[in-house]
Specification:
It is a single chain. By secondary structure, the protein is of the alpha/beta class. It has 3 domains: about 5-150, Methylthiotransferase, N-terminal domain (Rossmann fold), CATH 3.40.50.12160; about 175-420, pyruvate-formate lyase- activating enzyme (Alpha-Beta Horseshoe); about 425-484, OB fold (Dihydrolipoamide Acetyltransferase, E2P) (Beta Barrel), CATH 2.40.50. The chain has helices at about 10-25, 50-65, 80, 85-90, 105-110, 135-140, 190-195, 205-215, 240-245, 260-270, 290-295, 315-320, 325-340, 360-370, 400-420; strands at about 5-10, 30, 40-45, 70-75, 95-100, 150, 175-180, 200, 220-225, 275-280, 305, 345-350, 375-380, 425-435, 445-450, 455-460, 465-475, 480-484. Residues about 115-145 have low confidence and may be disordered. A 6-stranded parallel sheet has the order 2-1-3-4-5-6, with helices on both faces. A 5-stranded mixed beta barrel has the order 14-15-16-18-17. The protein is about 35% helix and about 20% strand.
Length: about 475
Protein backbone atom coordinates (compact mmCIF):
# COMPACT_ATOMS: atom_id res chain seq x y z
CA UNK A 1 0.00 0.00 0.00
CA UNK A 2 1.21 3.52 -0.80
CA UNK A 3 2.34 5.42 2.28
CA UNK A 4 2.68 9.06 3.32
CA UNK A 5 3.99 11.07 6.23
CA UNK A 6 3.26 14.71 7.13
CA UNK A 7 5.83 16.75 9.04
CA UNK A 8 4.37 19.91 10.63
CA UNK A 9 6.23 23.02 11.69
CA UNK A 10 5.01 25.99 13.71
CA UNK A 11 1.69 27.01 15.21
CA UNK A 12 -1.51 25.18 16.07
CA UNK A 13 -3.09 26.37 12.83
CA UNK A 14 -0.31 24.69 10.86
CA UNK A 15 -0.76 21.51 12.91
CA UNK A 16 -4.47 21.58 12.05
CA UNK A 17 -3.65 22.08 8.35
CA UNK A 18 -1.43 19.01 8.56
CA UNK A 19 -4.28 16.98 10.00
CA UNK A 20 -6.48 18.03 7.07
CA UNK A 21 -3.77 16.95 4.63
CA UNK A 22 -3.54 13.57 6.37
CA UNK A 23 -7.28 13.20 6.02
CA UNK A 24 -6.99 13.90 2.27
CA UNK A 25 -4.49 11.07 1.78
CA UNK A 26 -6.35 8.62 4.00
CA UNK A 27 -9.61 9.24 2.17
CA UNK A 28 -7.76 8.21 -1.02
CA UNK A 29 -6.59 4.92 0.46
CA UNK A 30 -3.04 5.75 1.55
CA UNK A 31 -1.58 4.57 4.84
CA UNK A 32 0.23 6.87 7.24
CA UNK A 33 3.85 5.84 7.81
CA UNK A 34 5.37 6.17 11.25
CA UNK A 35 8.29 8.31 10.09
CA UNK A 36 9.56 10.03 6.92
CA UNK A 37 12.15 7.35 6.20
CA UNK A 38 9.33 4.80 5.73
CA UNK A 39 7.07 6.90 3.49
CA UNK A 40 6.73 7.08 -0.27
CA UNK A 41 5.35 10.64 -0.02
CA UNK A 42 6.65 13.09 2.59
CA UNK A 43 4.82 16.39 3.02
CA UNK A 44 6.62 19.20 4.84
CA UNK A 45 3.99 21.62 6.12
CA UNK A 46 6.07 24.70 6.82
CA UNK A 47 6.05 27.87 8.91
CA UNK A 48 7.68 31.17 7.94
CA UNK A 49 7.07 33.36 10.97
CA UNK A 50 10.82 33.63 11.67
CA UNK A 51 14.09 33.12 9.81
CA UNK A 52 14.74 30.13 12.08
CA UNK A 53 11.50 28.51 10.87
CA UNK A 54 12.68 28.80 7.27
CA UNK A 55 16.07 27.30 8.15
CA UNK A 56 14.40 24.39 9.95
CA UNK A 57 12.35 23.58 6.85
CA UNK A 58 15.39 23.62 4.56
CA UNK A 59 17.33 21.44 6.98
CA UNK A 60 14.42 18.97 7.08
CA UNK A 61 14.38 18.72 3.27
CA UNK A 62 18.10 17.88 3.22
CA UNK A 63 17.80 15.37 6.06
CA UNK A 64 14.80 13.52 4.61
CA UNK A 65 16.27 13.44 1.10
CA UNK A 66 19.49 11.97 2.51
CA UNK A 67 17.69 9.26 4.50
CA UNK A 68 14.95 8.50 1.95
CA UNK A 69 16.15 9.54 -1.53
CA UNK A 70 13.29 7.73 -3.29
CA UNK A 71 10.55 9.63 -1.49
CA UNK A 72 8.51 12.37 -3.12
CA UNK A 73 9.13 15.43 -0.94
CA UNK A 74 6.26 17.91 -1.22
CA UNK A 75 6.75 21.25 0.51
CA UNK A 76 3.62 23.19 1.45
CA UNK A 77 2.52 25.73 4.05
CA UNK A 78 3.45 29.33 4.77
CA UNK A 79 7.10 29.22 3.63
CA UNK A 80 5.98 27.55 0.40
CA UNK A 81 3.45 30.32 -0.17
CA UNK A 82 5.95 33.10 0.56
CA UNK A 83 9.05 31.87 -1.28
CA UNK A 84 8.23 28.91 -3.57
CA UNK A 85 11.20 29.39 -5.91
CA UNK A 86 13.57 29.39 -2.97
CA UNK A 87 12.23 25.98 -1.95
CA UNK A 88 12.07 24.61 -5.51
CA UNK A 89 15.84 25.17 -5.73
CA UNK A 90 16.48 22.60 -2.98
CA UNK A 91 17.71 19.14 -3.92
CA UNK A 92 15.11 16.45 -3.28
CA UNK A 93 11.99 18.63 -3.54
CA UNK A 94 9.43 17.04 -5.87
CA UNK A 95 6.91 19.89 -5.84
CA UNK A 96 6.00 23.07 -3.99
CA UNK A 97 2.33 23.62 -3.07
CA UNK A 98 1.40 26.94 -1.48
CA UNK A 99 -1.37 27.53 1.02
CA UNK A 100 -3.43 28.64 -1.97
CA UNK A 101 -3.65 25.02 -3.17
CA UNK A 102 -3.16 23.07 0.06
CA UNK A 103 -6.82 22.03 0.08
CA UNK A 104 -6.15 19.91 -3.05
CA UNK A 105 -2.66 18.72 -2.24
CA UNK A 106 -3.30 14.98 -2.18
CA UNK A 107 -5.27 15.16 -5.40
CA UNK A 108 -2.44 17.02 -7.10
CA UNK A 109 0.33 14.75 -5.85
CA UNK A 110 -1.49 11.50 -6.63
CA UNK A 111 -3.13 12.38 -9.93
CA UNK A 112 -0.94 15.12 -11.37
CA UNK A 113 -3.88 17.51 -11.39
CA UNK A 114 -3.38 20.46 -13.74
CA UNK A 115 -6.72 22.20 -14.00
CA UNK A 116 -6.97 25.86 -14.88
CA UNK A 117 -6.79 26.90 -11.23
CA UNK A 118 -4.13 24.35 -10.29
CA UNK A 119 -1.35 24.57 -12.85
CA UNK A 120 2.39 24.52 -12.16
CA UNK A 121 3.92 27.99 -12.09
CA UNK A 122 7.56 28.92 -12.06
CA UNK A 123 7.04 32.46 -10.82
CA UNK A 124 4.81 34.21 -8.37
CA UNK A 125 4.35 37.93 -8.00
CA UNK A 126 5.24 38.85 -4.46
CA UNK A 127 7.98 36.21 -4.09
CA UNK A 128 10.45 37.70 -1.64
CA UNK A 129 13.49 35.49 -0.99
CA UNK A 130 14.88 35.60 2.51
CA UNK A 131 18.47 35.48 1.31
CA UNK A 132 20.39 34.22 -1.67
CA UNK A 133 20.75 30.56 -0.79
CA UNK A 134 24.26 29.23 -0.46
CA UNK A 135 25.41 26.07 -2.20
CA UNK A 136 25.14 24.29 1.17
CA UNK A 137 21.47 25.26 1.35
CA UNK A 138 20.72 24.19 -2.19
CA UNK A 139 22.64 20.95 -2.39
CA UNK A 140 23.52 19.19 -5.68
CA UNK A 141 20.74 19.03 -8.24
CA UNK A 142 20.06 19.17 -11.93
CA UNK A 143 18.93 22.31 -13.75
CA UNK A 144 15.34 21.04 -13.73
CA UNK A 145 13.13 22.86 -11.25
CA UNK A 146 10.37 21.33 -9.19
CA UNK A 147 6.84 22.32 -10.24
CA UNK A 148 5.32 25.14 -8.20
CA UNK A 149 1.61 25.39 -7.43
CA UNK A 150 1.04 28.84 -5.97
CA UNK A 151 -1.44 31.60 -6.71
CA UNK A 152 -2.82 34.72 -5.04
CA UNK A 153 -3.79 33.64 -1.53
CA UNK A 154 -6.25 36.54 -1.21
CA UNK A 155 -8.35 35.03 -4.00
CA UNK A 156 -8.94 31.81 -2.09
CA UNK A 157 -11.78 31.10 0.33
CA UNK A 158 -11.23 27.41 1.14
CA UNK A 159 -10.95 26.30 4.75
CA UNK A 160 -10.76 22.64 5.69
CA UNK A 161 -11.49 21.20 9.12
CA UNK A 162 -9.72 18.28 10.71
CA UNK A 163 -8.92 17.92 14.40
CA UNK A 164 -5.26 17.70 15.33
CA UNK A 165 -4.01 15.75 18.33
CA UNK A 166 -1.01 16.07 20.62
CA UNK A 167 1.86 14.22 18.96
CA UNK A 168 2.67 12.37 22.21
CA UNK A 169 -0.88 11.32 23.03
CA UNK A 170 -3.74 11.13 20.54
CA UNK A 171 -6.27 10.16 23.21
CA UNK A 172 -6.77 13.62 24.68
CA UNK A 173 -7.41 17.28 23.86
CA UNK A 174 -8.00 17.49 20.07
CA UNK A 175 -7.47 20.92 18.54
CA UNK A 176 -9.98 22.14 15.95
CA UNK A 177 -9.10 25.08 13.69
CA UNK A 178 -12.26 27.06 12.96
CA UNK A 179 -10.74 30.19 11.38
CA UNK A 180 -7.81 31.00 9.09
CA UNK A 181 -6.20 34.13 7.67
CA UNK A 182 -6.03 37.65 9.07
CA UNK A 183 -7.22 41.08 7.96
CA UNK A 184 -4.89 42.95 10.32
CA UNK A 185 -1.65 44.36 8.97
CA UNK A 186 0.80 44.35 11.85
CA UNK A 187 4.04 45.78 10.53
CA UNK A 188 6.16 42.80 11.65
CA UNK A 189 3.90 39.99 10.48
CA UNK A 190 4.04 38.05 7.20
CA UNK A 191 1.09 35.78 8.03
CA UNK A 192 -1.66 37.76 6.20
CA UNK A 193 0.41 37.53 3.01
CA UNK A 194 0.74 33.75 3.23
CA UNK A 195 -2.68 32.86 4.66
CA UNK A 196 -4.91 35.48 3.08
CA UNK A 197 -8.09 37.14 4.30
CA UNK A 198 -9.87 36.03 7.45
CA UNK A 199 -12.03 32.99 6.68
CA UNK A 200 -14.38 31.11 9.00
CA UNK A 201 -15.50 27.50 9.04
CA UNK A 202 -19.32 27.47 8.85
CA UNK A 203 -21.10 27.04 12.16
CA UNK A 204 -22.94 23.86 11.16
CA UNK A 205 -19.67 22.22 10.07
CA UNK A 206 -17.99 23.11 13.36
CA UNK A 207 -20.86 21.59 15.31
CA UNK A 208 -20.59 18.39 13.26
CA UNK A 209 -16.84 18.17 13.92
CA UNK A 210 -17.19 18.80 17.66
CA UNK A 211 -20.06 16.32 17.92
CA UNK A 212 -17.99 13.65 16.17
CA UNK A 213 -15.20 14.21 18.70
CA UNK A 214 -17.66 13.94 21.58
CA UNK A 215 -19.05 10.73 20.09
CA UNK A 216 -15.50 9.39 19.85
CA UNK A 217 -15.13 9.96 23.59
CA UNK A 218 -13.05 13.13 23.87
CA UNK A 219 -13.60 15.23 26.98
CA UNK A 220 -11.95 18.48 25.90
CA UNK A 221 -11.72 20.26 22.55
CA UNK A 222 -9.55 23.31 21.87
CA UNK A 223 -10.83 25.76 19.25
CA UNK A 224 -8.12 27.75 17.47
CA UNK A 225 -7.44 30.02 14.51
CA UNK A 226 -5.02 32.58 13.14
CA UNK A 227 -7.27 35.43 14.33
CA UNK A 228 -9.84 33.41 16.25
CA UNK A 229 -11.87 36.31 17.63
CA UNK A 230 -12.80 37.33 14.08
CA UNK A 231 -14.65 34.07 13.50
CA UNK A 232 -18.01 34.55 11.77
CA UNK A 233 -17.51 38.09 10.46
CA UNK A 234 -17.12 36.82 6.89
CA UNK A 235 -19.85 34.17 6.85
CA UNK A 236 -22.94 34.65 4.68
CA UNK A 237 -26.35 34.28 6.23
CA UNK A 238 -27.09 30.55 6.19
CA UNK A 239 -30.19 28.69 7.30
CA UNK A 240 -28.25 25.96 9.15
CA UNK A 241 -26.34 28.53 11.16
CA UNK A 242 -29.48 30.51 11.96
CA UNK A 243 -31.23 27.36 13.15
CA UNK A 244 -28.31 26.51 15.42
CA UNK A 245 -28.31 30.00 16.89
CA UNK A 246 -32.04 29.77 17.51
CA UNK A 247 -31.52 26.45 19.30
CA UNK A 248 -28.86 28.12 21.45
CA UNK A 249 -31.34 30.84 22.42
CA UNK A 250 -29.73 33.49 20.25
CA UNK A 251 -31.77 35.86 18.06
CA UNK A 252 -31.21 35.54 14.30
CA UNK A 253 -28.53 37.77 12.82
CA UNK A 254 -29.07 40.34 10.09
CA UNK A 255 -26.85 41.57 7.29
CA UNK A 256 -25.71 44.41 9.54
CA UNK A 257 -25.10 42.06 12.48
CA UNK A 258 -22.81 39.24 11.43
CA UNK A 259 -22.03 36.20 13.51
CA UNK A 260 -19.65 36.75 16.41
CA UNK A 261 -17.23 34.45 18.16
CA UNK A 262 -19.51 34.42 21.20
CA UNK A 263 -22.27 32.94 19.00
CA UNK A 264 -19.99 30.04 18.12
CA UNK A 265 -19.15 29.32 21.77
CA UNK A 266 -22.82 29.35 22.79
CA UNK A 267 -23.78 27.07 19.90
CA UNK A 268 -21.10 24.50 20.82
CA UNK A 269 -22.32 24.47 24.42
CA UNK A 270 -25.96 24.21 23.37
CA UNK A 271 -25.68 21.69 20.55
CA UNK A 272 -23.07 19.26 21.87
CA UNK A 273 -22.45 17.40 25.10
CA UNK A 274 -18.79 18.41 25.18
CA UNK A 275 -17.50 18.39 28.75
CA UNK A 276 -14.96 21.17 28.37
CA UNK A 277 -14.20 23.71 25.66
CA UNK A 278 -10.88 25.55 25.69
CA UNK A 279 -10.32 28.75 23.74
CA UNK A 280 -6.88 29.44 22.31
CA UNK A 281 -5.42 32.87 21.55
CA UNK A 282 -7.88 35.75 21.02
CA UNK A 283 -6.80 39.33 20.24
CA UNK A 284 -7.36 41.87 23.07
CA UNK A 285 -10.01 43.87 21.19
CA UNK A 286 -12.08 40.70 20.68
CA UNK A 287 -12.32 39.95 24.41
CA UNK A 288 -15.69 41.66 24.73
CA UNK A 289 -17.50 41.97 28.05
CA UNK A 290 -19.94 39.38 26.68
CA UNK A 291 -17.14 36.89 25.98
CA UNK A 292 -15.57 37.44 29.41
CA UNK A 293 -18.94 36.88 31.12
CA UNK A 294 -19.56 33.76 29.03
CA UNK A 295 -16.19 32.16 29.85
CA UNK A 296 -16.47 33.10 33.53
CA UNK A 297 -20.01 31.83 33.99
CA UNK A 298 -19.84 28.46 32.22
CA UNK A 299 -18.27 25.48 34.03
CA UNK A 300 -17.89 23.87 30.59
CA UNK A 301 -15.36 26.47 29.39
CA UNK A 302 -11.77 26.22 30.63
CA UNK A 303 -10.73 29.18 32.74
CA UNK A 304 -7.95 30.22 30.41
CA UNK A 305 -7.41 33.45 28.45
CA UNK A 306 -4.56 34.14 26.05
CA UNK A 307 -4.28 37.72 24.74
CA UNK A 308 -1.31 38.65 22.51
CA UNK A 309 0.44 41.71 23.95
CA UNK A 310 3.62 42.06 21.82
CA UNK A 311 4.70 45.24 23.66
CA UNK A 312 3.71 47.30 26.67
CA UNK A 313 4.99 50.52 25.08
CA UNK A 314 2.48 52.76 23.33
CA UNK A 315 5.13 53.98 20.89
CA UNK A 316 6.17 50.44 19.96
CA UNK A 317 2.56 49.30 19.56
CA UNK A 318 1.99 52.18 17.14
CA UNK A 319 5.06 51.21 15.10
CA UNK A 320 3.75 47.64 15.12
CA UNK A 321 0.36 48.88 13.80
CA UNK A 322 -1.40 47.11 16.66
CA UNK A 323 -5.01 48.19 17.23
CA UNK A 324 -4.94 48.76 20.99
CA UNK A 325 -2.99 50.83 23.47
CA UNK A 326 -1.39 49.62 26.73
CA UNK A 327 -4.24 51.06 28.81
CA UNK A 328 -6.80 49.20 26.67
CA UNK A 329 -4.86 45.99 27.20
CA UNK A 330 -4.58 46.56 30.95
CA UNK A 331 -8.34 47.08 31.16
CA UNK A 332 -9.05 43.74 29.44
CA UNK A 333 -6.66 41.79 31.68
CA UNK A 334 -8.05 43.37 34.84
CA UNK A 335 -11.63 42.57 33.78
CA UNK A 336 -10.72 38.93 33.04
CA UNK A 337 -8.88 38.56 36.35
CA UNK A 338 -11.75 40.14 38.30
CA UNK A 339 -14.24 37.75 36.69
CA UNK A 340 -11.96 34.68 37.05
CA UNK A 341 -9.34 35.16 39.80
CA UNK A 342 -7.86 31.68 39.34
CA UNK A 343 -7.80 31.71 35.53
CA UNK A 344 -4.67 31.17 33.49
CA UNK A 345 -3.84 34.42 31.71
CA UNK A 346 -1.12 34.36 29.07
CA UNK A 347 0.35 36.58 26.38
CA UNK A 348 2.73 36.69 23.43
CA UNK A 349 5.48 39.27 23.86
CA UNK A 350 8.13 40.37 21.37
CA UNK A 351 11.61 41.50 22.39
CA UNK A 352 13.78 43.73 20.20
CA UNK A 353 11.26 45.24 17.78
CA UNK A 354 12.96 47.84 15.53
CA UNK A 355 13.59 51.08 17.37
CA UNK A 356 12.79 49.60 20.80
CA UNK A 357 14.72 51.72 23.30
CA UNK A 358 15.69 50.73 26.83
CA UNK A 359 12.91 53.00 28.12
CA UNK A 360 10.33 51.36 25.83
CA UNK A 361 11.48 47.90 26.88
CA UNK A 362 11.16 48.95 30.50
CA UNK A 363 7.54 50.00 29.81
CA UNK A 364 6.85 46.44 28.62
CA UNK A 365 8.63 44.93 31.61
CA UNK A 366 6.71 47.16 34.03
CA UNK A 367 3.30 46.39 32.49
CA UNK A 368 3.95 42.65 32.64
CA UNK A 369 5.16 42.93 36.22
CA UNK A 370 1.99 44.75 37.25
CA UNK A 371 -0.54 42.48 35.52
CA UNK A 372 -1.67 39.02 36.77
CA UNK A 373 -0.09 36.92 34.02
CA UNK A 374 0.46 33.24 34.72
CA UNK A 375 2.65 32.54 31.69
CA UNK A 376 4.22 34.27 28.67
CA UNK A 377 5.36 33.20 25.20
CA UNK A 378 8.39 35.42 24.56
CA UNK A 379 9.81 35.82 21.05
CA UNK A 380 12.84 37.66 19.74
CA UNK A 381 11.97 39.88 16.77
CA UNK A 382 12.86 38.35 13.40
CA UNK A 383 12.73 40.53 10.27
CA UNK A 384 10.40 39.10 7.64
CA UNK A 385 10.88 39.95 3.95
CA UNK A 386 8.17 42.17 2.53
CA UNK A 387 6.96 43.50 5.90
CA UNK A 388 7.25 47.22 6.81
CA UNK A 389 9.21 46.43 9.97
CA UNK A 390 11.86 44.62 7.96
CA UNK A 391 13.13 47.93 6.55
CA UNK A 392 12.55 50.14 9.59
CA UNK A 393 15.43 52.14 10.97
CA UNK A 394 16.87 51.25 14.35
CA UNK A 395 17.11 47.48 14.05
CA UNK A 396 17.98 46.26 17.55
CA UNK A 397 21.26 44.29 17.78
CA UNK A 398 20.52 40.61 18.20
CA UNK A 399 22.53 40.34 21.43
CA UNK A 400 20.41 43.13 22.96
CA UNK A 401 17.15 41.54 21.77
CA UNK A 402 18.17 38.16 23.18
CA UNK A 403 19.06 39.69 26.53
CA UNK A 404 15.66 41.36 26.70
CA UNK A 405 14.08 38.03 25.81
CA UNK A 406 15.94 36.40 28.71
CA UNK A 407 14.80 39.09 31.15
CA UNK A 408 11.15 38.65 30.15
CA UNK A 409 11.35 34.86 30.36
CA UNK A 410 12.78 35.09 33.86
CA UNK A 411 9.96 37.44 34.84
CA UNK A 412 7.42 35.01 33.38
CA UNK A 413 8.94 32.12 35.34
CA UNK A 414 8.68 34.05 38.60
CA UNK A 415 5.05 34.98 37.96
CA UNK A 416 4.12 31.41 37.02
CA UNK A 417 5.78 30.02 40.15
CA UNK A 418 4.01 32.56 42.36
CA UNK A 419 0.66 31.67 40.74
CA UNK A 420 1.20 27.95 41.31
CA UNK A 421 1.94 28.52 45.00
CA UNK A 422 -1.40 30.29 45.44
CA UNK A 423 -3.14 27.05 44.41
CA UNK A 424 -1.56 24.78 47.05
CA UNK A 425 -4.34 23.38 49.22
CA UNK A 426 -7.08 24.28 46.76
CA UNK A 427 -9.20 21.98 44.59
CA UNK A 428 -9.17 22.20 40.80
CA UNK A 429 -10.32 20.15 37.82
CA UNK A 430 -7.72 18.42 35.66
CA UNK A 431 -7.87 16.30 32.53
CA UNK A 432 -5.74 13.17 32.60
CA UNK A 433 -3.23 12.72 29.78
CA UNK A 434 -1.10 9.62 30.31
CA UNK A 435 0.22 7.41 33.12
CA UNK A 436 3.91 7.12 33.95
CA UNK A 437 5.18 4.12 35.90
CA UNK A 438 2.90 1.96 38.01
CA UNK A 439 1.13 2.27 41.34
CA UNK A 440 3.69 -0.13 42.83
CA UNK A 441 6.72 2.07 42.04
CA UNK A 442 5.24 5.46 42.79
CA UNK A 443 3.60 5.96 39.41
CA UNK A 444 1.69 9.07 38.53
CA UNK A 445 -0.55 10.43 35.80
CA UNK A 446 0.32 13.49 33.76
CA UNK A 447 -2.61 15.90 33.68
CA UNK A 448 -3.52 19.45 32.73
CA UNK A 449 -5.59 21.63 35.01
CA UNK A 450 -8.61 23.58 33.86
CA UNK A 451 -6.46 26.70 34.30
CA UNK A 452 -3.66 25.39 32.11
CA UNK A 453 -1.02 24.09 34.51
CA UNK A 454 0.94 20.87 34.25
CA UNK A 455 0.03 18.49 37.05
CA UNK A 456 1.38 15.20 38.36
CA UNK A 457 -1.60 13.30 39.74
CA UNK A 458 -0.75 10.56 42.24
CA UNK A 459 -1.51 7.06 40.98
CA UNK A 460 -2.50 5.69 37.58
CA UNK A 461 -5.67 7.02 35.99
CA UNK A 462 -7.18 6.38 32.54
CA UNK A 463 -6.54 9.15 30.01
CA UNK A 464 -9.13 11.69 28.89
CA UNK A 465 -10.95 11.97 32.22
CA UNK A 466 -11.79 15.17 34.09
CA UNK A 467 -10.95 14.56 37.74
CA UNK A 468 -11.30 16.82 40.81
CA UNK A 469 -7.85 17.24 42.32
CA UNK A 470 -6.46 18.64 45.57
CA UNK A 471 -3.16 20.47 44.97
CA UNK A 472 -0.59 19.28 47.52
CA UNK A 473 2.61 21.03 46.49
CA UNK A 474 4.66 22.75 43.81
CA UNK A 475 7.57 20.77 42.38
CA UNK A 476 10.16 21.27 39.65
CA UNK A 477 7.76 19.48 37.26
CA UNK A 478 4.83 21.74 38.14
CA UNK A 479 1.93 20.99 40.45
CA UNK A 480 1.47 17.74 42.32
CA UNK A 481 -1.85 16.53 43.71
CA UNK A 482 -4.23 13.71 44.52
CA UNK A 483 -7.73 12.90 43.31
CA UNK A 484 -10.16 14.41 45.77
Amino acid sequence: MATFHVVNFGCRATQADGAAIERQFQERGLERAGEPAQAGIVVLNTCTVTAAADRDARAAVRRIHRKNPEAQIVVTGCYAQRAPEEIAALAGVSSVVGNSHKHRLAEMVLFGLQTSDCRPRTTQSGFVPLTRLTSDDRGPRSDARSPIFVSDIFAHTELQAAPVFDASNERTRPNLKVQDGCDNRCSFCVIPYVRGHSRSLPLAEIIREVQSLVTAGYSEVVVSGINLGRWGRDLPQESDGQNLLAAAGQPPTTDSQRLRFEDLIRAILSETALQKLRISSVEPMDWSDDLIDLVASSPRIAKHAHLPLQSGSDAVLRRMHRKYRPWHYRDKIEKIHAAMPSAAIGADVMAGFPGETEAEFEETHRLIEELPFTYLHVFTYSARPGTPAGTMAGQVPIRVARERNRILRELASRKKLAFMHTLVGSRVEAITLQSVGSDHDGGYTEALTDNYLQLRLKGNHPPNRWIPVKIEKVSDAGLAGIAS
